[in-house]
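The methods section describes the discrete structure representation at length, but only in general terms. What matters is that the chain and its backbone geometry are given together, residue for residue. Nothing conveys this as quickly as seeing an actual entry. For illustration, here is how one protein appears when written out as sequence plus structure tokens:
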Amino acid sequence: MVKGMILAILLEGITMDNKYFTTIVLILVTASTLLCGCYPKRVGPLGPEGKQLTWEKMNLSQRKDHMRQQVLPVAADVFGTWRPERFAQVDCSLCHAQGATQGRYDMPTADLPRLSGALLLGPEFERAPETTRLKLDRLVPEMSAALGLKPFSIITRTGFGCYSCHLGPKGAMFGN
């Protein structure tokens, strides 16, 4: 419905003489629908209907297995290639901290550093540009893919992103 309204607004006032512009808009709307409309992805084990489960449909045991087999190796690769001496051994506590030893896996968590909440993470880039760039360029996209979740969109402020794991200055942000 929202995409239809956007399309109507974009096409309002466009005459048939401007077919090129109309074609471009239609291609962009179609591409965004195809690319963004396919989430959540089925990344888990087979469910009762014989189809892979999405993250939301997995039970706790299935989620733990998926995290161990799919997500943790990705995190170990991202952090291990960045700082091999510090992240030679990676386990659940990397993201879940104390919660991992207590069986609490809720995210976002107060055990990770809080982020500023600033648009485009300005203070984080000033404080730790290499770390922030690594997380935005590799960690977030690879984690969202491993979990089958839509990547964060700055436009819609939804999807898997930094605030899926980290709290903002006043707590959870962007519906997390």
Q: What stands out?
A: Residues 55-164 form one domain.
